[in-house]
Sequence to fold (202 residues):
Amino acid sequence: MKIYVDFDDCICETARNFSTLAVEMFDIHVPYEKIKYFDLDKSFNLSDEQFDQFMIRGHEPEVLLSYDETPGASSVINEWISCGHDVSIITGRPFSVYEPSRQWLDNHGLKNVRLYCLNKYGRDSFIYSDYSLELEDYYKMKFDFAVEDSPKAFRFFDHLPDLKVLVYDRPWNRDTEFKNDNYIRCLDWNQIQEIVRKHQDI
Fold:
């Protein structure tokens, strides 16, 4: 099987880190459970200037490397790889942070998983690489499962009508109405693992 896995808030705790960062940088206190929007400028009520500073700081290598792993992520992904599944981490992070993102994966035992930076939201100045994707490249790829947290990313699955989308439960997606029964809310990686296992047995 081919499996798409998002990076931030699926395999690492990015939003929890940003909640702490907002306090450190601007004395803005928004607990993780109160982050209601994927757009962090809206969630933290930041000005354009503050948001730019926030994103620059949040993407500095030492900050990216400090993010905690989402419990169970690496062990499940490695199990999939050992079973012969084709797993790709596809992130909306800019390609400029590919190297520290790759290092984070390696540090967390995910040396055998591929990482692609996809220009999901038109924010990246595209740099061609074997590990960077524009949408036209991405739409040529096929997947059986996707692990994703962002409602804004769901539109990138419309070309795959049989795709099972395992939505990692986060505060900013709890009010989202799913398009169809292919979207399944998952509370943790154990649940994600069980759903994929059951599909293998069908």
Notes: The beta strands are 2-5, 86-91, 114-118, 132-133, 145-148, 164-168, 183-186. The mean pLDDT is 92.
